[in-house]
Amino acid sequence: FERWRPPEEPYIKINVDTAFYVHISKSCSGIIVRYGRSRTIAEKVTVNESILSAFTVEAIACLQALRLGVDLNFKRVVVEGDYLSVINKANLSCVDRLAIEAYIQDIRTEQRRLRECEFVYVSQEANKSTYLLVQEGWSRGDGLNLEHSYLEEMVALNCRGVSEDDEASVAMASKGILVKGDFSEGEKDDWIFLE
């Protein structure tokens, strides 16, 4: 049984997972951004429409993860997911003629905006928190109305033994992303809302 592992400093780890609903051409992407010993600093759930294939879903999710990292001004990131074909293509520099090539090109463009970026395949067990985020996001309808207590439990499930102090550092806004960090001189670990 493989568990999530914290990134080496100074890297930020971005875990990504998806669910694809072929009968309605929709997908749900979940992203959890962590630093250090499982400290969650950002999360995002997105429902994507007009999706034609599972490969497209995975490529879109990787692109969304990278864009979130760039938007949050991270310089060194490790993107983890359980879709080997997209991760392999993102790590290669050759051009492919598959339907996802446009997304792969966009991924490479976003990669260049970072100082260092690595794509790593992980098992579904190691990516369980992100999987649960996607499932809960989809079941709530719009993919974004998640409750703080559910997310705390979800991340705690996957990070047991990593750091008890950090298990409860998870939250989500009704729309957008909540980011945890030191944003004011007086207060540590404030939550700010990004639109």
TrEMBL record:
Gene3D superfamilies: Ribonuclease H-like superfamily/Ribonuclease H (3.30.420.10). Residues 15-136 form the RNase H type-1 domain. It comes from the Eukaryota. GO terms for molecular function: nucleic acid binding; RNA-DNA hybrid ribonuclease activity. This is RNase H type-1 domain-containing protein.
